[in-house]
Amino acid sequence: xxxxxxxxxxxxxxxxxxxxxxxxxxxxxxxxxxxxxxxxxxxxxxxxxxxxxxxxxxxxxxxxxxxxxxxxxxxxxxxxxxxxxxxxxxxxxxxxxxxxxxxxxxxxxxxxxxxxxxxxxxxxxxxxxxxxxxxxxxxxxxxxxxxxxxxxxxxxxxxxxxxxxxxxxxxxxxxxxxxxxxxxxxxxxxxxxxxxxxxxxxxxx
Length: 205
Description:
The chain has 205 residues and is mainly alpha-helical.
């Protein structure tokens, strides 16, 4: 792929054809990535080391932590961010290969429809990630986790484990849910903006 295609692709990803899309990119790229990369590491970075059970044995702690966290929140949210970016990236790659200017996307029905479809996919992926987050992490992190160690130790079946910084993790969970809701609202507002521009209610950029 030539440098011109790469330049058009990067410009399309950073500067979508709608005002709300540009704000979504700014919000998505700066706030969510900063929150996850910096604060997420501070909250979850040492969780496995400080996760302790009774009895406090390494194999018990590791077994229960793997049961408590089938997937670490940082990995889940990083995958969510990458997957949600795929529909938009695919569209802008298509636009770059076809040499479609950003200001022309909303002028033609096919391109506008294709772009709206990519926004709908973002909404669906965000909704799926929201549901998965509920299934994996819930809305609250309790201070005590009851671990089933029957497969590891025959002497006892249930043991108590201490979850470090549970209150901070609860706040972080709520923040990530809020970010998902905000991005979905922005995607819906972007579709509304495109519809208004197509109908002539709003002037095109």
